[in-house]
Amino acid sequence: MKRRNFLLTSMAGAATAALAPSTVLASCAPKKDGKKANATPLNLCFQEGIALGANLQEKLDYCESLGVTGFEVGGRGLAGRVDEINNALKGRNVRMAAICAGFDGFILAEDGQKDEFDRTMREIIEAAGKINSCGVIMVPAFNGQKPCRPHTMDTRNYLCEQLHELGEFAVQCGTTVILEPLNRGECFYMRLVADAAAIARDADSKGVKCMGDFWHMQEETSDYAAFMAAGTEYLQHVHIASRGRRKTPGEDGEKDNYREGFRALKELGYPGFVSFECGCEGDPKIVLPAAVELLRKQWEEA
Ligand code: MG
Questions:
Q1: What is the CA(39)–ligand 1 centre distance, in A?
Q2: Is it the case that residue 158 has pLDDT exceeding 80?
Q3: Model pTM score
């Protein structure tokens, strides 16, 4: 090929290459007018152990005082708390969010722990439905849990089958089960929001969903892409903490940047909660209101 022809061909190729990515990237760019995206409200939520107060009523009062409209409780003993929780929420501007685990055993156990999981998880799911929770959070197996089915394709298929049954049961109860991906130190085979979303899809039940936890999302290459991969069909809940030490958002300074993930949630019109699951280094009376303010500011900026 003569040099001039080669150059022309190369330039044509370059032009095509330049066009294609910009076409694709256009949908990922921040919305300039911002009207639709900014209409999505930030729905904040506190886990029970985070809200200040000596009892449930005081904790809910505290949530309301900060405009926090979600409340997340642990699943252990939930069946015995249904009336207490429903009565406490009556007439309030706070709704039940997700239920955080609380079952015994685990779904991938090779021994009697699987039966323990089935029994206790179903009890929690039933109770979750009675308090209008959006779902019960679960991890199929932590790294240290034994004896565990081997990490094979057969195990993945088994997991999807089992989740299908569990998801259908959850639908009957008016709630869902929510898969939580963790970091590799805790659960090496389900580390990405997209992984969890794909398992939820393959479980083929409207009752199987996934979530993202900004702490564990240190595994992600992009917070934005992670939430977008799950989309509104699968993304059911979000956890948040500071990004250096899992303290209260803001306690790790510049590291605590949630804008990229928030931008995805806004563009999705995500209707769920962003729930505090974190420790606290400073005085919670100061640090918690500051965190609420910081997250609202970053949401505006996203
Ligand atoms: Mg979490």
A1: 26
A2: yes
A3: 0.88
